[in-house]
Design a protein that fits this description.
The protein is mainly beta. 0% of the residues lie in helices and 37% in strands. Strands 1, 2, 3, 4 and 5 form a five-stranded antiparallel sheet that branches.
Length: 84
C-alpha cells in the first residue's frame, strides 16, 4: 500500500529535491531526498548518513534514518535520528 511513507511511482531520483548537510571537515554527512515542494519539517524525507574513517577520511558506510529506505523522516531532525 502506498502512503506518505513510501515513494510514488513512477519516479526517478532526478525528479526529487536533494539536500546535503556537511560535517566539520566539509564532507557530505547527510543526504536527503523528497518530492519537490516538501517542507524540511515534513515527515516525507529519505535521509542517508555517511560515516567516514577517522584516519583516512574515506567513506566507510551509508546508513538510512530509522534503518529503512523509506520517505518518512524529518530533514530538520536528521542529527537526532538513529541510523542503521
Amino acid at each position: 500500500m502506498l502512503d506518505n511513507r513510501t515513494i510514488k511511482f513512477p519516479f526517478s531520483e532526478d525528479s526529487m529535491q536533494t539536500l546535503v548537510a556537511y560535517d566539520a571537515s566539509n564532507r557530505p554527512q547527510y543526504i536527503g531526498l523528497a518530492h519537490p515542494g516538501v517542507a524540511t519539517s515534513a515527515a516525507q524525507w529519505q535521509i542517508r548518513k555517511i560515516t567516514y574513517d577517522a584516519v583516512t577520511g574515506n567513506p566507510t558506510s551509508v546508513q538510512f534514518a530509522g534503518g529503512a529506505n523509506d520517505y518518512s523522516s524529518v530533514w530538520d531532525d536528521r542529527a537526532a535520528l538513529s541510523y542503521s
